[in-house]
Sequence to fold (114 residues):
Amino acid sequence: MVDYETWIYDVGLDPTGTLNFTCDMTTVAVNLANAYAAAGGNDSPSNYQDYNDFTSAQRVVFLQTLMDNIDTDIDVITKIDDDLDITSSVDPEVMMRWYTIGLYLSYDAVTVPA
Fold:
């Protein structure tokens, strides 16, 4: 029996506790963002070009992970932009997140496009 009141109106995960929204490609995007942050802008992850094959949703996960990562700084996003040229993206979901990160960190390359 399903408790529809909890399912529909309460905050949180599904009341059954069985839904899982992660997938392999989401994990790849999160791991790539974390690898960039861990490198501190000094190096590119060996699989950095995987980003070019990401769907828009995966790119959003990548950028959201950077936004949520305390180790993301100007050196990290500069290295990412050098590798992936995200500032030139025309995907509005990507642009919104990238420009937010860039403006927050005073990354000059996004000031005019933003």
The helical segments are 4-9, 24-39, 56-68, 74-84, 92-104. The chain has one domain: 21-110. The mean pLDDT is 90. The radius of gyration is 17 Å.
